[in-house]
Amino acid sequence: MPLKHVGAKSRLAAELEDDDHAGVVQAMRLDTVTAAAETGRVVLVTDGPEPADELARLASVQLRQRRAGLNGAIADGVDAARRRWPEAGVAVLVADLPAVSADQLRLALSAAAKVPRAFVADADGSGTTMLTARPGVELRPEFGTGSAARHARTATPLDVSAGLRLDVDDAADLDRALALGPGPHTARAARGALDTARSPEASMMSAVTDDQSAGRPATVATATPTQPPVRRPGIDASDSVPEGDLIQLPDDAEDLPADRFSNRELSWIEFNARVLALGEDRR
Hints:
Blueprint: E1 2-3, H1 10-15, H2 18-37, E2 43-46, H3 53-58, E3 61-64, H4 69-84, E4 90-93, H5 102-112, E5 117-121, E6 128-133, H6 147-151, E7 156-157, H7 171-180, H8 184-197, H9 200-213, H10 264-280
Parallel strand pairs: 1-2, 2-3, 5-7
Antiparallel strand pairs: 4-6, 5-6
């Protein structure tokens, strides 16, 4: 079983928080390797640091890949398995099958043992989740984009349960795995990770990130609570007089005293000033 570094699943990484993504990937590996270990001996091939202790305990053999690429890692693992157990067949299983069970694997391997080579196509039919070969038969792995069509030229397709076909590449796949019933590690990690990713705060941050990646200024719209209009005491809307209803003063109005009218706005300000002054008076 080849294991890439935890950050390899770029589509899933783009949809989950960093810590949640690492936790979900590790959980899926634990559930997949647990099912495989209940079925047979497991060889783990890594392209980086040794796997976590939980994974290491489940493996019969673990090694660092020497040949480049995914198919190179698979070839390293197959060589190691056949040196140790030459009488046994080999099976390559991807490590992101959280809904697979040991019973499903046993049934698939039993069917695969009847033909020289067999493979399982993924849920959309284009990729491969498992490739097998009987003892003494060359495996011929051709994993990568569109691998199902290449494997179909030299191997027999197997009709298996959905759990063995559903490899998780993005959040939608993770939802499907939860619906099928994943292993316990994925069940715990995935629900919290998806809830966090779909929270309103995460959606807002995603919108900001999308703007920044597109070269646009990051903008966040915020809702401002509507405040009721402030009504000053003593000022009534009826104090306003329509322009057409203005009273014409007599010609001798210019002889009236200049302070005959009181500016209510100014008087209100003066009143407030007096109140503030009294409030500051410590007597």
